Amino acid sequence: MGPASFARPVRSAVAMIMFAALSPVALSLSACVRPVDGAKAQDQRPVAQAGRIMSWDDLLSRARPEPTTTISVGTNGANVVDVWAPEDGEIHPVVLMIHGGCWQKAIADRTLMNYAADALRREGFGVWNIEYRGVDEAGGGYPGTFLDAALAADALRDNAVAFDFDLSRVVAYGHSAGGHLALWLAARRNIDPASPLAAANPIPLIGVVTAGGLADLEASAPVTLPSCLARVMGKLTGDASAARQNVFSDTSPAELLPLNVQQVSVNGRRDRIAPPSLGKGYTDKATAAGDAASFALVDGGHVELVAPGTSAFDETINIIRAMVDAAE
């Protein structure tokens, strides 16, 4: 199904595809914290949204669900994937999930997405929740962080049958820094073959959902928390060279357009880590390049985007399902 036919179900699933310009707001370190191990409470109800946005503690205090299994897909400790498989004997569309955390393992790892992964599994999606080395780990940064994400994504091919996953219906879904990597996975075909990040046969995607994503590295650096991107930019993108004068040429999806895949940028109205201007700006660039790209403005901040029970996460599920339905 082509771009025109896709646009209709997405518009019907999203309550708001309009943009209200927001001035930059102060960013707080409290919005980026390392997920805790285990759970502190059993209450699964979302926090009331009257007057404030959710904090990470609001999400992480819930009992944390566990994946079906965890598998190794490579040789370093970060080459692992959590698999979330519905147990009903059916063949399921797949959500290729990428966590955020400012590309830094000291801030977050894949378990931050356990709540979202479990909710998607309950909705009938298989979930392939990948890990990768952060820029703060040995071997992370350029090119290791990207190579880990690519390896884990492509490993879905070899494991799909075992978990009844449908490789013809794979949607990449990333949050924050993971939104950048989700779009980057879709962009790999456009990378110069001379780059160490080039991929001859990346796993095909039917769409990408970037939730509070930092997809355009150059545009995001002066807007988001400095410690989230600006201060680690050199590690993430690597050094310029005579052969690679533009460090964004193989690391930033905005430099690799068009991606030739459906894309939706979902942004919280009061997100202080990835303000809506970033999602709208990237969407405009993708649309201008000829891609079928949409922007969805939803209620809440950065955490609501991955918190089951919130209207922001409900909209995200609707968008993913619309992409899958359009591919059938």
Architecture per CATH nomenclature, i.e. the level-2 architecture: 3-Layer(aba) Sandwich
DSSP E strands, number:
8
Q: How far apart are the termini? A: 8 Å
> How many separate structural domains?
1
SSE layout and pairing:
Elements (H helix, E strand, L loop, with lengths): L2 H11 L42 H5 L8 E4 L7 E5 L7 E7 L15 H9 L3 E5 L13 H11 L1 H4 L5 E11 L1 H11 L19 E5 L5 H4 L12 H5 L24 E7 L7 H13 L4 E6 L12 H17 L1
Parallel strand pairs: 3-4, 3-5, 5-6, 6-7, 7-8
Antiparallel strand pairs: 1-2, 2-4
Helix pairs in contact: 1-10
Structural commentary:
- With 328 residues, this protein is α/β, with parallel strands linked by helices.
- It has a single domain, classed as Rossmann fold, CATH 3.40.50.1820.
- It is 27% helix and 15% strand.
- Strands 1-2-4-3-5-6-7-8 form an eight-stranded mixed beta sheet, with helices on both faces.
- Helix 1 runs antiparallel to helix 10 (311-327).
- The chain is globular and about 55 Å long.
- The relative contact order is 0.18.
- Mean pLDDT is 88; it is low at 1-49.
Which terms would index this structure?
Rossmann fold; 10 helices; 328 residues; alpha/beta
What's a quick, concise take on this entry?
This protein has 328 residues and is α/β, with parallel strands linked by helices. The protein has ten helices and eight strands.
